[in-house]
Amino acid sequence: MHTNRKTVLGGAVVLAAAASLVVGCERGSSTGAAPRPTGPTKAGCPAALAKAEAAVRQAEKTDSAWQGPTTGPRAVSGKNIVYVAQTMTNPGVAGAAKGVREAARTLGWNVRVIDGQGTPAGIQSAFSQAIALRPSGIVIGGFDPRLTSQQVARANAQHIPLIGWHAVDSPGPSKDPELFSNITTRVEDVAKISADWITTHSHGDAGVVVFTDASIPFARNKSELIKKGIAACSGVKLLAEENIPISDTSSRTAREVSALLSRFGEKWTHSVAINDVYFADAAPALRAARKKGAAPPFNIGAGDGDPSAFQRINSRQFQATTVPEPLSEQGWQIVDEFNRAFSGEPPSGYVAPVHIATAANSAGATAWDPPGYRAAYRKIWGR
Question: If phi over 0 gives left and psi between -120 and 50 gives alpha, with beta otherwise, what is residue 86?
């Protein structure tokens, strides 16, 4: 779920209005952005801790070999793609759109982006405009297709391939709504690696607060999966789950954080949020309580990893890590999936693995851009 306040506010408006989900992402050590607690470990879950440590080590790598497709159809020429964006103020939506444009240039395709402005009416209008252009394919960029069911039906009737980016819960093809493919990491993987990071970073001895938005089914499911992952280690305790609607983070988060500090004090060692925006809004309260940016509570965002999250992580200011989406890579995958659709071939089935970004492994970057995908896709396309 893509990730600064502008990001999530636009999505939340759509969700509330439509009563549906706007869905709308290896160097370094396994220690995260801040040093682990010193002293002997108190882990009561040696087996779970060992598994978590192995998973975190893998997720923190930045030099893993390309795991995506290596075969596929040669490039089809002369195609026109329309990217219907939930809102281009959403860094996730905008990052994927940038990747689509870059990949399309490689193939000589034309791409037009139509901004839905983050409202149901705006998104429906943008989708209608896209269909009127009679494009070769349409990208559903970061919103629930059920919000635009009439437009989806028209596109399907006109045999215009639809590819979603964070459009439905799961990656891959979708029958209802009818999508050739949906590009996203698996929410189960994001939730699990977030919990694994807390277990690893704390050596299995943590007091955790979970920040979620229970009004959004996708977010509620993610936080439930995170709590399940936390429970795998008996020494990692859930102190509280704070239900703060994403649309209210700026007005409520600081107040709730102050209350949590009063309630739990030093017992609160780690936090995990379904979106990085919570930590942008938690920082003032933590600062006012004279907390240090690289001290407990150590915070992990189980969201897209927007640039502001990377900036907090790299400067060690009240966020230790995030689980980012590889936005540019996903844009290239969208173009590859369209090329497969135009060639009469099935989708690739590729799902990007989760990654953990820390100050130690991001090298000052403000996005997760894994190696290898550009060369791999160019080879497939013959470009």
Answer: alpha
pLDDT of 43: 65
What residues contact 236, with CB distance under 8 A and at least 6 apart?
A: 45, 195, 198, 199, 202, 204, 205, 206, 208, 230
State pTM to two decimals: 0.86
Long-range contacts of 367-370 (CB under 8 A, 24+ apart): 367/25, 367/95, 367/305, 367/307, 367/310, 367/324, 367/327, 367/328, 368/25, 368/305, 368/324, 368/325, 368/326, 368/327, 369/326, 369/328, 369/329, 370/26, 370/62, 370/64, 370/326, 370/329
Asked if residues 211 and 242 have their Cβ atoms less than 8 Å apart, the reply is yes
157-162 long-range Cβ contacts below 8 angstroms, 24+ apart: 158/131, 158/134, 160/131, 160/134, 160/135, 160/136, 161/136, 161/137, 161/338, 161/341, 161/342, 162/137, 162/138
Burial class (CB in 10 A: 0-12, 13-18, 19+), 266: exposed
pLDDT, tens only, 330-345:
999 999 999 999 999 9
What is the tens place of the pLDDT at every residue in 195-253?
999 999 999 999 999 999 998 888 899 999 999 999 999 999 999 999 999 889 999 99
- Strand intervals (E) in 53-92: 80-85
How many Cβ atoms are within 10 Å of 349's Cβ, its own excluded? Answer: 12
The pairing of strands 179-183 and 172-174 is antiparallel
Residue type, 136: S
Distance between CA atoms of residues 236 and 344, nearest Å: 50
**289 has a pLDDT exceeding 80:** yes
Short-list 64, 41, 90, CA closest to 356? 64
For 17-50, b where at least 16 C-beta lie within 10 A, e where not — what string? ebebbbbbbbebebebbbeebeeeeebebeebbe
Residue type, 223: S
